[in-house]
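To the team - methionine sulfoxide complex, inputs and output below.
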Amino acid sequence: MAEHLHISNGSKEDKYRALLPQVKSLMANETIIMANLANLAAALNETFRFLWVGFYLVKGEELILSTFQGPIACTRIRKGSGVCGTAWERAETIIVPDVNKFPGHIACNFASRSEIVVPLFGKDKQVWGVLDIDSEQLNTFDAIDQQYLEEMCNMLHK
Ligand code: SME
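Output:
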C-alpha cells in the first residue's frame, strides 16, 4: 500500500488520472467497506481540497451520514430530498452548478456553492449509498469529475 499520495500538479484530469491507480491499489487488499470509504474520502480531499467530501449510506428510507472529510453535516436525508436523496431516487449522478438553483437543496454548510452526488451501486444494481462532494466555488463539477468519480465509486464493492 502506498504510504502517501502522489498528487499531480497538472490539470484536474491529470489529478484524477494520477489518483485512480492509487485508489485502486489502496482498495485492492481491503475488504472492509468502511475502510475503503474512509480512504477514498481522504484521497479526494487531499487531492482537491474540496469543502466537503463524504458518504451517506442507505438505511431504510433514509441516507445516514457516514465517513467524511470536512465540516460537520446533516446526519439524515430522506429519499427524494436534497441533491443526495434525489440522486438516490433517480439512481444517477447529479451535478449542481449552483446549489441555490437546485430546488430542495439541503444546505448543511452555507459556504457550499456547487455540488456533485454519485450513487453507489451494489451487485444487485440497487443504490446502497452516495458520494457527495461540495465546493465553495460555483460550477466546480463537470463530465470529467463525473467520469472519474463514477469509476472510483464502482471500485467500492459492498
Ligand atoms: N447538500 C446535500 C446535503 C448533504 S451536505 O452537502 C454534506 C443535499 O442537498 O443533499
